[in-house]
Amino acid sequence: MAEPQADTDGVTETETASAAARAVPAPAGSVRTGAGPATRNGPARRDPWDVPPEGLLTRLGWGVRAYCFIAAMWIRSTMAYRTSFVMMAAGSFVSSVLDFVAIMIMFSHVDSLAGFSLHEVALLYGMSATSLGLADLLLGSFDRVGTRVRDGTMDTMLVRPVPALAQVAADRFALRRLGRIGQALLVLGWALAGLRLEGGVWALPLLAVTVLGGTAIFGSVFVLGGAFQFIAQDAAEVQNSFTYGGATLLEYPPTVFAKDVVRGVTFMIPLAFVNWLPALRLLGRDDPLGLPGWADFAGPAVAAGCCALAGLAWRAGLRAYRSTGS
Amino acid sequence: MRLRGVYFAVAAGSFRRYATYRIATAAGVFTNTVFGIILAYTFTALWSERPHLGGYDQSQALTFVWTGQAILAAAALIGGGFQEELQERIRTGDVAVDLYRPVDLQMWWLSADLGRAAFHLLGRGIAPVVVGSFLFELALPVSPLAWLAFLVSVTLGVVTGFALRYLFALSAFWLLDGAGLNMLSTLLSMFFSGMLLPLTVFPGAFGEVVRALPWAATMQVPADVLLGQYEGARLSEAYTFQAVWAVVLMAAGRALQSLATRKVVVQGG
């Protein structure tokens, strides 16, 4: 909950622009000096940036590569202010710790919350926080789309020969968010040590797949939020309701909330697949909506659907984009 | 006399500046409402297991949640406001221009922050509470005097919050990149203001200490004033607690400011 507004980095836009220009090689067809290595040294290594990629898979690989380049650039840039980085990584860890301390204080007064023990809540917490932490690490800068549209720096991204999605995703890549993931994994480990999960040998694989699926679902919400900012530039905070708000909701058992709220996060925004449904099965409990058993395993399919939807929304947002023109 | 006019103009300008971003305000109201609903359900679960926990009954606990959401933006509990702006000016060296102005640096930013807080209290504070009172049974006071007492307490809380954040903001004179300390500031204010859980619920000696820290003045005390936890003469105790912290921290801010402007070379050419 503390993260959203605290997300300011001390690196300026000008540094971003120039550093990003260095990180991404010149586009195909741009002016090059010299005759090029291929003619001088015979058939040399083909420059992967020279040919516009074709085919979905090639484009995807290309986007991922560009993402890694930009992320690496941001890591180098963060390391210029090393004290700040260490403090922020530690801060990210401690603020998540305090988040869980609040839950522990609650449990110092009660033995169970809406029928769930501290270890069971810790399992929900660990799963939800790990998923959000991973999504935030990988795609945490989509709340800056609105700012970029407003000040015109979105144009810079569109003229570079790299998918805008990859650029926005890697923008201000913040390694310090590992702090939050570390805390979430610790809570998850502590929960697993104190619980006997149902499902035998399949329990841990289901847990791992669910956490990754949850990452994809939260990631889709980030991308959807980014796409929405093409229309409403100042509305970046709305997505916090679904990401940070959603993660907070999922930290508590579904029995805490009214049925309509549970229905909403199952059928409208499918956050229930991030942890609730699989976790309830692992804990051997019935889900309050009485969904069929296969729904507990539907996480990856739901996540794939969310990603597809988010991708379409992003394309629509990008098409609707009008430059500030200045 | 004329100087006071300047500070008033700065505050009014800051109010108007934040009022410009209507969609951002609406987005903020939406987010505060969603968080309010989530917290309200968890508090309902907790208080139905342990009624009268922390001296609140269930409707008072729910009122605490929504008061928190109303104060959240005004008291800048999750950061924002002037902090990053001042730090950016320190980093780029623009602060030299600010120091040349015939106004006091701390008062200038305090006026700006009060203007912002006034807008955030109106623009982002009222709507979530209205929604909350439709969805949940709240224990809001009817007497206008209670609301007036609350407003005074919120104002003192905002000044205390400002004084705290001013100290963190000035750290940029030494660190240049204040992002790390800002994060520390945010996590301290989230936890120790009572935003996550009322400080009255914190156990034992830890609870005693936490309730005496300055962060308690930013949210816990105003919420308690609204809930009528401070009756009669005890109200002045609450105000004194807030005012003492505000004065002490403002004085510390001045000391740090004079140290910074004397010892540190301003960045930039």
TrEMBL record, chain B:
Organism: Streptomyces nanshensis
Pfam families, sorted: ABC2_membrane_6
Calcium keyword on record: no
Signal sequence segment: none
Residues passing through the membrane, by range: 21-43, 63-82, 121-140, 146-175, 187-206
Protein name: ABC transporter permease
Keywords: Membrane, Transmembrane, Transmembrane helix
InterPro entries for this protein: ABC-2_transporter-like (IPR010390)
